[in-house]
Known about the structure:
This protein is α+β, with helices and mostly antiparallel strands. Helix content is 17%, strand content 32%. Helix 1 crosses helix 2 (33-41).
Amino acid sequence: MTQEIIKETFTPNQQSGIRIDKLLAENFANVPRENFKKAIKNGDVLVNGKKIKPNYVTGEHDKIEINIIFEKKIITALPDSSVEINVIYQHPDFLIIEKPSRISAHPSDKERLGTLANGLLSKFPQTKNVGENPLRPGSVHRLDKYTSGILIVPLTQPSFDFFKLLFKNRQISKKYTAVCWGIPDKEEGIIESFIGRSHSNPLKQATSKNSNKVGNAKKAITEYRLLKKSSDETKSLILATLKTGRKHQIRVHLQSIGNPVVGDKMYQPEKLKIANQDFTRFLLHASNLSFTYSDGKKYQFESPLPKQFTKFF
Length: 313
């Protein structure tokens, strides 16, 4: 261990809407979250020039000032050969893989092994030096733990930088297939609203036509199309296309039109609590992805739906 000083000023931008201690721990992987909690309490971390508490929820335009000294501890993801990696396409610069449900994208303090990043390091050790965070090697985008489907894994730093730019400029087409409760009033449509932190529960996102109704509001647009109805018309198969990339966007938007994702216990209305108990995951799958790479070629990939989705139709 060596002593190191962090003296920086920055704004959270897209990472806002989470606790200040968590945000700092995610961006400075070598510093344990407990160290940041102590620094915040000591006044070594200021937001907009003021002392705050570790549970302060950050805003997009907050000015965060850090001036701390800590014992540097290198924390990196470890290889784990027990994690299977299902590669559906391999390019010299990147992989296209299928992520199963119920597996985290990268390690955390509580989950050091058994994640997708651990498996990638075992099968593709070159990912160790790719990306911006040693706990998230080769990670240029991610899926929630219970979402399955297609992921891009850059194998080189130039590839990582290229894909990061594509995502920033919304030049990657991402489509998701969801099993939802009920049948939408319209067979296809566009859901456009603001999404941001819920005032009643900071762990959840909320949506509103009024930006003042949610914390750190950002415009969100989702196109959807009804694919199939179950024979008893209690469920629908919906294809959702992201036009923006907000946290929990599809789940929040489908819930907002009265068709929450089956098995989604975070965004379920009271009347679906019992029905959702039969599911160990929410039924959302990243099924289609396309982009034009730096070689000028257009790449398109499709992931078949898990059996758990198709049995209703």
